[in-house]
């Protein structure tokens, strides 16, 4: 019995490496990769392709109605000038959100990298990033509690000045930007922080000992050296923001009409899928153009 | 200077947490119209216990997140093995192909899925949600496990194989135990990604089968009561716990104790 097991073990021991040679390595590689890329094809690549086809249809295909292909969905920006205005609104919201995130986030990253040390720094970083990985919808909802009339903001104000009116600004574009900055600020803090911790302290000490003031250090050393972090942060914020729809809906109310909400409407209300598809692809083109422009910086940003 | 920095960081943390804490507190306020003064009450949590719609949606969310986590972690780890340990042509392209689910706004991915699933007959509902959630979670799993791979030495597996172990046996007895913290971290990450996913779910859910975020969204738009605060609080605490455990296991950037 024991002998038998020994023989089996030794045979297996001999066969191990041989059977490895029998199986060409590309078979194993393919077997390992197939499920993931098959899944992504089914769930992401084929859908995007189908949407591209739909964006050239004249109407949502229904029943036996013949499918007519046309370019008119892409002319929507010319045929319906209000879309241009909405597109600009989206770009402006994206611009202001990114700008606020860049300024606030960069300064927070500097403070984190330079004035917090050791364990405290680690805890602070986790505290800053924690909300980022919680439900965005719930965080947007929580701003309605603060910004609405007689909300938290008003309560604070009335504690200081009981007779003053309401300063709640829910259902304005400002509310949308505040909600979006809240949502994406941790991203900017993280990308800037990663760029800043690589800066050698000696450089800053050298500058300071040579008489550089803090603004010189900030604008001549920290900002240029953290530029890759700032740019990756800006790209990674601007892109989801111009495609956002629930933040404008919940915080913007009637003024919250953006590219995102218009696209959502085409799929949930108007049932004009071809128009929704062409608007989505226009948005995707903008996204890809931004990625292409900054791909060099982004690649360096992720490997650093 | 350092003092200013600390004050500033505290201000940033206040900005990040105030709305969340206010929202949580309002779930314990008796007034249905969020009126102050604050009167402590657990009535909204009690009401939640009787709210079939929200509870069912919450259950659906958890079930989908668990299945997504298991499937995405399995598939993503397999892909990560190939991408981290094998050399083949087209590897760079495959790595780039992991980016679209992360980088393209979910609104675009979600509407594209809606069109394709409708057109191909896959339809909407639980299976559609699972297909979508797993696809979104896989790239994160590959990245997290791939980072784990970089911290363990390839020659350990080679040593096992040169001593007669089969590649599969070497993987399961040498590499996998070393990789275990990363894989567990990736699984928790995938769980959190699925649990918090709203946009994709919104387009793929049906009136009969929704997830918690979709249900919360429709409640916010139709007029809401502090019950929404109560369930939102539970949802936030759930994903915060998952992420904190993830941070504990995956220890991003820490390579000291794994060799």
Describe this structure in words.
- The complex is a heterodimer of chains A (304) and B (259).
- By secondary structure, chain A is mostly helical.
- Helices cover 76% and strands 0% of the residues of chain A.
- Chain A is built from 14 helices and no strands.
- In chain A, helix 8 (173-197) packs across helix 12 and helix 11 runs antiparallel to helix 14 (273-303).
- Chain A is globular.
- Mean pLDDT of chain A is 85; it is low at 1-20.
- Chain B is an all-alpha fold.
- Chain B is built from twelve helices and no strands.
- Chain B has helices at residues 2-26, 43-49, 52-85, 91-96, 100-103, 106-120, 126-151, 154-162, 167-196, 199-204, 212-222, 226-250.
- Residues 253-259 of chain B have low confidence and may be disordered.
- At the A-B interface, helix 1, helix 2, helix 4, helix 5 and helix 6 of A face helix 1, helix 3, helix 5, helix 6 and helix 7 of B.
**Poorly predicted parts of chain B:** 253-259
Largest Cβ-defined interface: A-B, 88 and 86 residues
Q: How many β-strand stretches of chain A?
A: 0
Q: Shape of chain B from CA axes?
A: globular
Q: What is the C-alpha radius of gyration of chain A, as a whole number of Å? A: 27 Å
């Amino acid at each position: 019995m024991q002998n038998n097991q020994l023989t089996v073990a030794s045979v297996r021991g001999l066969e191990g490496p041989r059977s490895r040679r029998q199986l060409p390595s590309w078979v194993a590689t393919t077997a390992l990769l197939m499920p993931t890329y098959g899944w992504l094809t089914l769930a992401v690549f084929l859908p995007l392709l189908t949407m591209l086809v739909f964006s050239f249809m004249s109407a949502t295909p229904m029943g036996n109605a013949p499918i007519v292909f046309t370019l008119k969905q892409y002319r929507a920006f010319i045929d319906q000038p209000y879309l241009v205005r909405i597109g600009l609104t989206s770009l402006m919201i994206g611009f202001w959100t990114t700008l606020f995130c860049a300024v606030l986030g960069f300064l927070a990253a500097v403070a984190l990298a330079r004035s917090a040390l050791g364990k405290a720094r680690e805890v602070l970083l986790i505290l800053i990033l924690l909300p980022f990985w919680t439900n965005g919808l719930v965080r947007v909802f929580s701003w309605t509690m603060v910004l609405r009339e007689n909300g938290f903001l008003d309560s604070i104000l009335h504690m200081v000045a009981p007779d003053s009116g309401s300063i709640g600004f829910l259902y304005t574009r400002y509310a949308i930007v505040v909600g979006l900055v809240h949502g994406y600020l941790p991203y900017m803090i993280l990308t800037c922080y990663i760029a800043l911790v690589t800066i050698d302290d000696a450089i800053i000490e050298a500058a300071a000992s040579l008489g550089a003031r803090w603004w010189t250090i900030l604008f001549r050393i920290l900002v240029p050296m953290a530029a890759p972090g700032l740019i990756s942060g800006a790209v990674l914020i601007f892109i989801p923001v111009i495609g956002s729809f629930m933040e404008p809906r919940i915080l913007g109310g009637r003024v919250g009409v953006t590219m995102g909400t218009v696209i959502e409407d085409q799929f949930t209300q108007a049932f004009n899928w071809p128009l929704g598809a062409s608007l989505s692809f226009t948005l995707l083109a903008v996204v890809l153009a931004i990625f292409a422009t900054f791909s060099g910086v982004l690649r360096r940003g992720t490997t650093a | 200077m350092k003092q200013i920095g600390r004050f500033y960081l505290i201000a940033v943390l206040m900005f990040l947490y105030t709305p969340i804490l206010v929202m949580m507190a309002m779930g314990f306020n008796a007034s249905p119209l969020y009126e102050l003064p604050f009167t402590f009450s657990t009535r909204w949590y009690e009401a939640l216990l009787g709210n079939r719609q929200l509870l069912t949606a919450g259950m659906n969310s958890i079930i989908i997140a668990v299945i997504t986590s298991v499937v995405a972690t399995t598939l993503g780890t397999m892909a990560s093995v190939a991408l981290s340990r094998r050399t083949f042509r087209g590897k760079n392209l495959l790595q780039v192909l992991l980016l679209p689910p992360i980088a393209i706004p979910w609104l675009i991915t979600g509407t594209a899925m809606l069109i394709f699933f409708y057109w191909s007959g896959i339809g909407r509902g639980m299976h559609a949600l699972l297909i979508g959630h797993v696809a979104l979670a896989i790239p994160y799993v590959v990245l997290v496990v791939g980072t784990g791979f970089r911290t363990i030495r390839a020659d350990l597996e080679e040593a096992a194989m040169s001593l007669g172990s089969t590649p599969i046996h070497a993987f399961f007895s040498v590499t996998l135990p070393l990789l275990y913290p990363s894989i567990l971290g990736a699984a928790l990450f995938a769980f959190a990604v699925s649990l918090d996913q709203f946009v994709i779910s919104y387009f793929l859910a049906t009136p009969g089968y929704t997830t918690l975020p979709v249900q919360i969204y429709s409640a916010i738009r139709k007029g809401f009561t502090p019950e929404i605060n109560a369930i939102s609080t539970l949802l936030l605490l759930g994903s915060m716990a998952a992420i904190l455990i993830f941070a504990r296991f995956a220890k991003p950037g820490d390579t000291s104790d794994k060799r």
